Amino acid sequence: MLRNPIHKRLEKLESWQHLTFMACLCERMYPNYQVFCLQSGFGDPMVYRRILDLVWETLVVKDAKVNFDNQLEKLEDAIPSADDYDIYGVYPAIDACISLGEVIHSRLSGETLEHAITVSETSLRTVGMLEMTQAGREMTDEELKVLPAMMEELDIQWEIFRLLAECEERDLELIKGLRSDLREAAVSNIGVNLAG
């Protein structure tokens, strides 16, 4: 999958920055999950919303206590199976769940870098898969990289990274600002709008 030059740079960040980066990308994938649930009648999008809210809470509330083992179980029950649906939206929905799962695993293991890279790659894959599906063919990384949707995704990941990289220490205002900006935008990495 497309190698993002950001992945090398992520090594320089601290774990709270990795976690915020992942939460931001999950926030951008949430509309894909929510709209899939509403279209297909599968599950409850609020399960995803609540878990992601708990992740944000641990970033801004000192000593917030969250049982992430418990949250992982809830998430695992909320992942659709691609075999059960013949609508395309199941794939971006699964990617959104994979990404949130990475965040939870990073909270359980204390390792954040590898998970942050995986979430970045997963979000790029969601965009790339849709572009290839719409074009009806496989594309090389070189072809994908110049597509407007892919360039936008790379730009947004860089923008989030840059804002975080500029912080000397955990910046609660920045974390809250990123959260509210992405929520208010309510548009996913593939241009899906939150359903009200």
Structure description:
This is DUF416 family protein. InterPro entries: DUF416, YP001051499.1-like_dom_sf. It comes from Enterobacillus tribolii. By secondary structure, the protein is mostly helical. It has one domain: YP_001051499.1 domain like (YP_001051499.1 fold like). Helix 2 runs parallel beside helix 6, helix 4 runs antiparallel to helix 5 and helix 5 packs antiparallel against helix 6. The chain is globular, with a radius of gyration of 16 Å. The mean pLDDT is 96.
Briefly, what is this?
It holds the Pfam family DUF416. The protein has a single domain (11-174), classed as YP_001051499.1 domain like (YP_001051499.1 fold like, Up-down Bundle).
CATH class: Mainly Alpha
Rg, nearest Å: 16 Å
Number of strands: 0
Determine the oligomeric state from the structure.
single chain
Shape: globular
Q: Please write the string of helix (H) and strand (E) elements.
A: HHHHHHHHH
Main β-sheet description: none
Structural class: mainly alpha
> How many discrete domains?
1
- Determine the mean pLDDT: 96
Q: What proportion of the residues is helical, as a percent range?
A: 55-70%
Q: What is the CATH superfamily classification?
A: YP_001051499.1 domain like
Low-confidence stretches: none
The end-to-end span amounts to 33 Å
The proportion of residues in beta strands is: under 5%
What's the total helix number?
9
Could you tell me the CATH topology label: YP_001051499.1 fold like
Q: What is the name of the CATH architecture?
A: Up-down Bundle
InterPro entries: DUF416, YP001051499.1-like_dom_sf
Protein name: DUF416 family protein
Organism: Enterobacillus tribolii
Pfam family, one: DUF416
